[in-house]
Structures are given as C-alpha cells and as structure tokens.
Amino acid sequence: MSDPRLETYAFRMQLHPGQAEAYRQRHDAIPGDLVVLLREAGISDYSIFLDPQTHALFAILKRPREHGMAALSEHPAMQRWWAAMADIMDTLPSNEPVCVPLVPVFHMA
C-alpha cells in the first residue's frame, strides 16, 4: 500500500542524440552533496528512464505533498549540476533542464 503522505511526480526531459552514455556516466558519479540536497527536499525513490528512439528521458519520483523542490534551483549544488549537464540535454537559459510534467492516467497498485 502506498504512503498517503507522498505523491508521485513524473516528468519528461530531452537528451541530445548520442549522449545516452555520457548521461549515464554523469549520473553514476552524481555528487554526494547533490544527493543529500535532493533528499532534504523530500525526494525519494527517484528513477530516470531513457527512450533510445526519441532520446526522451522520463523521470519519476516520490515526494511529500509539502516538499522543498521549488527551492532547489537556488542552491549552488543544483546550479553546478545543471551547468555540468547543459551540454547534453535541452535546457533553459539558467541551465535548468526543460522539464515537462506528465499527467497520470493509470496506476495499478
């Protein structure tokens, strides 16, 4: 049974063609301070999936309904991470990845 205090949040990002291995390697070496920051914002059970045909990245995570994700963009660790990833994916001028929230349409528990 799922925890009613948590919500599932899913979103799509876009990887540049030919960058799947670089994306994987960078995430294999994700900085520890960034992991701590994400957890402190309430993020847990975070996964990212790649559609190799379209280079779309699909992310899904759990977070409390009262989460701290909005403040992440102001943190230097997050800004460093975004800058390090900006060359391989679609980003905004701030280097933040272009994230499109996904609408839930089905869930089987």
Mean pLDDT: 96
**First CA to last CA: what distance?**
7 Å
User: What is the element string, with H for helices and E for strands?
Assistant: EHHEEHE
How many β-strands, per DSSP? 4
pLDDT under 50 segments (min length 5)?
A: none
Binned, the helix content reads 25-40%
Largest sheet: 4 strands, antiparallel
* Strand line-up across the major sheet: 2-3-1-4
Short description:
With 109 residues, the chain is α+β, with helices and mostly antiparallel strands. Helix content is 26%, strand content 26%.
Annotation keywords:
about 110 residues; alpha+beta; four-stranded antiparallel beta sheet; 3 helices; about 25% helix; globular
Structure characterization notes:
It is globular, with a radius of gyration of 14 Å. It has a four-stranded antiparallel beta sheet with strand order 2-3-1-4, with no helix packed on it. With 109 residues, the chain is an alpha+beta fold. It contains three helices and four strands; from the N terminus they run βααββαβ. The longest helix has 10 residues, at 76-85.
Topology:
Layout: E1 6-14, H1 20-28, H2 32-40, E2 44-51, E3 56-64, H3 76-85, E4 100-101
Antiparallel strand pairs: 1-3, 1-4, 2-3
